[in-house]
Amino acid sequence: MDEKTFKTRTKKLAVAFIKQMDKLPNSGAADVVARQVIRSGTSIGANSRVAPNPLRT
């Protein structure tokens, strides 16, 4: 998979996480869970962009 495709896929995944968390009911517990899931879901793309890639030249 090339870098552009990977970035696109991880961005779509992050957006999907956010949209799903918007569907949770408004409660204290749901807010805590939603924040954590969003943090986890969006960190995939962020971590992959920062990490060194041994395949890059």
Question: Which features characterize this protein?
Answer:
57 residues; mainly alpha; 75% helix
Brief summary of the model shown:
With 57 residues, this protein is mainly alpha-helical. Helices cover 75% and strands 0% of the residues. The relative contact order is 0.16.
Tell me what you see in this structure:
- The protein is mainly α and about 55 residues long.
- The chain has one domain (about 5-50).
- Helix content is about 75%, strand content about 0%.
- The protein has helices spanning about 5-20, 30-50.
- It is elongated, with a radius of gyration of 14 Å.
Unreliable segments (pLDDT under 50, ≥5 consecutive)? Answer: none
**General shape:** elongated
Query: Structural class given helices, strands, pairing?
Result: mainly alpha
Please give the domain count: 1
Radius of gyration: 14 Å
Sheet with most strands:
none
Instruction: Report the β-strand fraction as a percent range.
Output: under 5%
Total helices: the number is 2
Summarize the amount of helix as a percent range. over 70%
- Give the CA-CA distance, first to last residue: 15 Å
Number of strands: 0
